[in-house]
Amino acid sequence: xxHAMAAEALLLRKxxxxxxxxxxxxxxxxxxxxxxxxxxxxxxDPVKQAADRAELLATLLPAAAHTTAxxxxxxxxxxxxxxxxxLITGSEYRWGTWPARLSQGPGRAGVVLAKVxxxxxxxxxxxxxxxxxSLVASIVVASVEGRSLTWPAASAxxxxxxxxxxxxxxxxxxxxxxAVIFRGVGAALGAGLLWTLGLENALSGLAGVVPALEPVRAxxxxxxxxxxxxxxxxxxxSEGGAVGVAAYMSAPxxxxxxxxxxxxxxxxxxxxxxxxxxx
Amino acid sequence: xxxxxxxxxxxxxxxxxxxxxxLDGVTKAFGAVQAVREVTLRIEPGQVYGVLGPNGAGKTTLxxxxxxxxxxxxxxxxxxxxxxxxxxxxxxxxxxIESPAFxxxxxxxxxxxxxxxxRGVADAEVARVLRVVDxxxxxxxRVNGYSLGMRQRxxxxxxxxxxxxxxxxxxxxxxxxPDGMASMRxxxxxxxxxxxVLLSSHLLGEVQEVCDRVVVLDKGAVVAEDSVSALLGAAGxxxxxxxxxxxxxxxxxxxxxxxWTDAVRxxxxxxxxxxLELDPGGVPELVRALVxxxxxxxxxxxxxxxxxxxxxxxxxxxxxxxxxxx
Lengths: 279, 326
Description:
The structure holds two protein chains of two kinds.
Chain A: H1 2-14, H2 17-43, H3 50-60, H4 65-70, H5 73-95, H6 98-101, H7 108-145, H8 154-182, H9 186-207, H10 214-217, H11 221-231, H12 251-275
Chain B: H1 3-7, E1 21-30, E2 33-43, E3 48-52, H2 59-67, E4 74-79, H3 87-90, E5 93-96, H4 108-119, H5 123-132, H6 148-160, E6 166-170, H7 178-191, E7 196-200, H8 204-210, E8 213-218, E9 221-227, H9 228-236, E10 239-245, H10 247-256, E11 264-266, E12 273-277, H11 283-292, E13 296-302, H12 307-319
Parallel strand pairs in B: 3-7, 3-8, 5-6, 6-7
Antiparallel strand pairs in B: 1-2, 1-4, 8-9, 10-12, 10-13, 11-12
């Protein structure tokens, strides 16, 4: 396991994909979490829409930077982390490198676990970078608007970081499993993004009008992610917050669902890699 | 190249060492396709062992079974005294299966470092194997810029990481230029005796040159398994070429004798001679009959068939085909 981790860490460090995905995500968090809202804020009428402006500005200042960043994760962050998970395991199929990777010594389960653990480390770095960039963006906004720098509590920052990492690992695990199921990158990405951006949203939306679908929504990854972020105090879309954020379930229930996806994703990938012939 | 110095420090296996590879009644099917049928083999430590067979004969499946990448349906497999595919077994095996695959946008050196770390061997080992395959100069270039031959050498380097005691090489000279092929054969010959080498190749001359023993597979089953010399001897021992003068008189004599009616004229106008099937004990009688018939016998030579001829004879016969490469 130790050797598999060392190999995987070197491989991920030398690959471009984590940097592209992570860097792209940081830009998206800053752009859609702070850049676009600030443009909207600047176009609002200072007199007629003063209340809306104040409300919007409050989400862009350092005191709310951590929750604003977290609000980006339930929908778009999840999809990005799913892509990362697909690339971590699926690229081995694309390159044809599984036979070589699985004939060096570490067991198959160890190799898969190493991939997920190293991917988790990458996710921690990406989430930390996104949070740091959000704080920097909020400082810029505060400076431009002449507001004082009021910082969130360290515990609030840590909680938000923990929640975003938790959500990201769940999505990444699903992506890793999809790549193993489909034995490649293309089909896994297609299926994953179709599920994430299409079916999950459709089911979640329908559950609002068809009560029979509520139990289904309660076990979906997107609503669980949105509920956990909502528990941090991020307003839902209807309250002027981010897309995908809504308190569909309690924070413990959301954590249970996310944990379930992590366990199921890793277990499925491991079992398939162990059982299948590598040809 | 410094191949000899690089590999010479591994001690030769002892005579009492257990078999490097043992398969007993191994069978594997992929759906309706029977890839391997009841294969039983024993490969001694230090042997350079050839695996031959036409496309689809089951060679690569057999090699994957030894690595634990493919599980058998039935039969037992023992590799270096252990079950195949376990971490302990894999750490003692180096393998190049089919065309070598690497992360294309990483350098050759980085690819080897990733594999070395998985094996738990130091980066210094990467430098050693790169020297063995003479790839130091290109090691820091991206693999996607490598020629097929360079990838092949990198694949062999990867297989040698950690000085495994069993090397499984599937078409190791594929894509190499003549110099590279000669170097690779030299490397394999040098490794023999110290390391067990399992070599699959379509180049039958190569197998004949470097292997101690050979198994021929066809449609997943073993059709022959013996030392190279025994296979060549068994298959080629009856064909005799006769140079005599006058040729026509010799031909009449041969054909008039009921035992040699299969004699055929060969060699064209430059080197005319007669070829016929003859048991080893029949040569004196043949010479006597020709001389008594007034023919000068210039030379009689028993033809030694190549492994390629043996291979075609074995695989065509076993499949019931009437076509023959010889």
